[in-house]
Amino acid sequence: MAGLPEPLQDLVDAFSRLPGIGPKTASRLAFYLLNSPDEVSHGLSSALEGLKAGITLCPECFNITLAGRERCEICSSSQRDTASLCVVEKPLDVLVLEKTGAFTGRYHVLHGVLSPIEGIGPNDLRIRELLDRVRNGDIHEVILATNPSMEGDATAQYLQKQLAGSGARVTRLARGLPVGGELEYADQNTLLRALAGRQEL
Amino acid sequence: MRLTRLSLTNYRAFAQVEVVLPRGVVVLVGDNAQGKTSLLESVFFLAAFTSFQTSQDNQVVNFTARGDDIPVTRIVAEYERAEKQHKLEIRLILQGGSAEYGTGRLRKEILLDGIKKNAAAAVGHFNAVVFIPQMSRYIDNGPEERRRYLNLTLAQIVPGYADDLTRYTRGLIRRNALLKQLQEQGGDAGMLDYWDELLADCGSRLISARDAAVREITALASPVHFTLTGMEENFSMQYLPALTQVEADLPGDINELHASYLARLRGNHRVDIARGTTSIGPHRDDLRFVVNGNNLADFGSRGQVRTALQSLKLGELQWMKERTGEMPVMLLDETLAELDEHRRAGLLESLAECEQVLLTTTDLDLFTPDFLRSGQIWQVRAGEIEISK
């Protein structure tokens, strides 16, 4: 059986490496580009080249930011509350929290969670930098906003122990029933947590 | 409780079959390898969401269906519980791997009354007790078989047990991975704290549920055994928790149990890191079956083992009834052929209490005409069922 010509196969392979893309979608994308006007593939390739060169990590919070900036937009803003810090797993989490508009402090991006199975320990994450920030800055509250998964909880608990004695108040995002959900569909664990975390009206 | 309707699609020998089930006894008769046991297995699947005869559930997917693009096995049951009708559907979808050899990953979808549930939430709604000849492996084989027996029985009856077991297992895998990591690369042992607490939390509930269930089932099984053996044998089942070795040393209070378990896990950090694995907990528990003070595994004859299992199963049946208020569906596979006439009569007599019994046999002569008249007889041949009476 004859295979695809090499340049096309290379592109299919490159697409297949992306998350959520299987071999069929990869070939469809590759053929689409092959049949499109040149501008489409040029646009894509210059966007790809600009991606790595144009993006860097903020040296303070480790969120992604434009290359060449000293600090990210949030860290350099004078409008943000410098006494409160929200710790998240990844840059996308900052984006969703920002969309709520409810948090006015600054962030710290860990770039992962402690994961025994994947062999990720404290030194693989931006944990030392977080501890330095809390110790050296005038931080009153650290909000731990890692995911409510086993690994996210383990990371939060580890951070909480490391931060004990720093003087900052350490809090964790509340957990319970999703808004607009139904009790009937909630699993037992979520219900138990919701019961334990019930609030006075 | 009882099944009222059962439909199987691509389940082992059954390409497609649908039956309406009566109250009382159904005798499945047929030669070997025609699908009798598969039918019982499918009913047990509704109770445990796993097979009673293999730990590789993907083998239940029909061989010819495995060639399809998306091989799906479907078990759909309607059942009556506390005079209410319910519907339970299990879909087993084979994904990836070599479909032909059944090596793919099996995805289970469970719908209870039309609502998708995970296994831990759906377990316990339909209950069954199974009695098959291979059960002598509870006694012959390693502790893993006995823990599997405890888990399949308790998950059906004790609320939260299945959930705790899932969380415990996931937590254990992570704690062990972390222990290996600490062993190989060193690091902060404080990272173990979260996993210690998680295991002690779920684990102490598992231990306490196992302890109570073993005592309750023994209390119900031993009078049965005493009668079956003509007042000659005392039967008991002993729980051997890895935590304290003997059941008697377990703290009776769950909070005390939790505290002492957590202290043991913390105290074991050095040993556990050196071994790269968690040395105590429910994953190392065992059971012992004892007749007249002797361990059945060491001293029991074949006949003694069979009788003990019969008592155990009848005790289990009563236990489920006491705990849930509902008689589970009883499933017996070829077990009658192994029993002598006296024991067979004893078994058939106690089955009269059940709302529904499904039993398989190759030989109808094992039953009295009266017994056969009381139930339905189904002929099972090459994946087809024919109601012959």
Account of the protein in words:
In chain A, α1 (6-16) crosses α2 (23-35). With 201 residues, chain A is of the alpha/beta class. The longest helix of chain A is centred in the first third of the chain and has 17 residues, at 38-54. In chain A, 20% of the residues are buried. Helix content of chain A is 44%, strand content 11%. Chain A contains eight helices and six strands; from the N terminus they run αααββαβαβαβαβα. The model of chain A has no long low-confidence stretch (mean pLDDT 92). In chain A, the strands form two sheets. A four-stranded parallel beta sheet of chain A has the order 4-3-5-6. In chain A, strands 1-2 form a two-stranded antiparallel ribbon. Chain A has two domains: 6-53, Helicase, Ruva Protein, domain 3 (Orthogonal Bundle); 80-200, Dna Topoisomerase Vi A Subunit, Chain: A, domain 2. Chain A has helices at 6-16, 23-35, 38-54, 73-76, 91-100, 127-136, 150-163, 188-196, and strands spanning 55-57, 64-66, 84-88, 106-109, 141-144, 169-172. Chain B is an alpha/beta fold. Chain B has a domain at 129-325: RecF/RecN/SMC, N-terminal domain (Glutathione S-transferase Yfyf (Class Pi), Chain A, domain 2), CATH 1.20.1050. Helices cover 42% and strands 24% of the residues of chain B. Chain B has helices spanning 36-48, 119-122, 137-140, 143-157, 161-185, 192-228, 254-267, 269-275, 296-299, 302-324, 341-351, 369-374, and strands at residues 2-11, 14-20, 24-29, 72-81, 84-95, 105-112, 115-117, 128-131, 235-240, 286-291, 294-295, 329-333, 356-361, 376-381, 384-387. Chain B has a six-stranded antiparallel beta sheet. Chain B has a six-stranded mixed beta sheet with strand order 8-12-13-3-14-15, with helices on both faces. In chain B, a hairpin with a 2-residue loop joins β14 (376-381) and β15 (384-387). The model of chain B has no long low-confidence stretch (mean pLDDT 90). Chain A binds chain B through residues 114, 116-117, 119, 121-123, 150-151, 153-154, 157-158, 161, 184-185, 187-189, and chain B through 115, 118, 120-121, 160, 163, 167, 170-171, 173-178, 181, 185, 187-188, 190-191, 193-195, 198.
